[in-house]
Design a protein that fits this description.
heterodimer; A: alpha+beta; 8-stranded antiparallel β-sheet; about 30% helix; B: alpha+beta; 3-stranded antiparallel β-sheet; about 70% helix
């Protein structure tokens, strides 16, 4: 099956685009971004604050498998129902600079829609670092599992 | 890990990315590659050297000429590197889609 989510990061700029088509009306896709209890379910995070309006702000906190808490926050710059959310995204207590996200919601048919998430980073180096983060986390998780196994052996 | 990071440093430069695109279609000599750039030949040679060092390019002796060609194994490393990021979002969006399909039917 062809992957439904595409990443366009080939141009080597300090930006990337995540594109996904959904078997959902655009209204439902948009709702998944603005209803806190729904955001919590698919993002796997706790929503402390989500003000869906121009100049509103948002704040999430995620607990990792080890019980550590990770905070995320940002402000909403543009908000247009079922069409557009422009916001900043910052990972708290990390050296990573804030990023700017342009979320475009598009109706394809009555029952299908498309999301394009255009993310702009402070530098090319930061973008590459952020792209590599899930990879690095995968390596860390493998290390943690290895640690657990080794600990059980001794 | 160091080797992988080097690959990313290698492709962070636009000239080096252009070189990779050029040799993707066919093996080329350093002269043929340099003819595509305004920059001085030694600068292009330096870029070629970096690409060879991090194994994105391979050298192939053909008579008196050295040809440069892509190393598909290493290119795959780059693709694999972005893959976990893509999978992370794919996983989230799959959850979103399943969740909202349920939402639709209960509405």
């Amino acid at each position: 099956m062809e992957p439904k989510t595409k990443i366009n990061a080939e141009d080597g700029k300090q930006e990337l685009v995540v594109i996904r088509e959904f078997d959902l009306p655009v209204e439902l896709l948009f709702k998944a971004y603005i209803e806190p209890d729904i955001v919590e379910q698919w993002m796997g995070t706790k929503v402390l604050k989500l003000e869906n309006k121009k100049h509103g702000s948002w704040q999430f906190v995620t607990t990792d498998p080890k019980g550590n808490k990770h905070g995320f926050n940002g402000v909403i710059h543009e908000y247009s129902l079922n069409q557009k959310i422009t916001r900043t995204f910052e990972m708290e207590n990390t050296p990573f600079d804030v990023q700017l996200e342009f979320l475009a919601f598009e109706k394809l048919t009555e029952n299908t829609s498309k999301l394009s998430m255009h993310i702009v980073y402070k530098s090319v180096a930061l973008r590459d670092q952020m792209l590599q983060l899930p990879f690095a986390q995968g390596i860390n998780m493998a290390h943690n599992r290895l640690e657990d196994i080794v600990k059980k052996m001794i | 890990m160091n080797l992988r990071r080097d690959v990313f440093q290698a492709i962070a430069d636009p000239t080096r990315r252009t070189i990779l695109l050029l040799v993707a279609s066919q093996s080329m000599t350093a002269g043929a590659i340099a003819s595509n750039f305004e920059t001085a030949r030694p600068t292009v040679s330096k870029h070629l050297q970096i690409l060879v060092e991090c194994e994105l390019l391979e050298q192939e002796q053909n008579g008196r000429e050295i040809y440069y060609r892509l190393n598909p194994e290493k290119i795959k490393v780059i693709a694999d590197f972005i893959e976990p990021f893509r999978l992370m979002w794919d996983d989230r969006f799959n959850k979103l889609e399943a969740l909202m399909k349920g939402y639709k039917s209960t509405e």
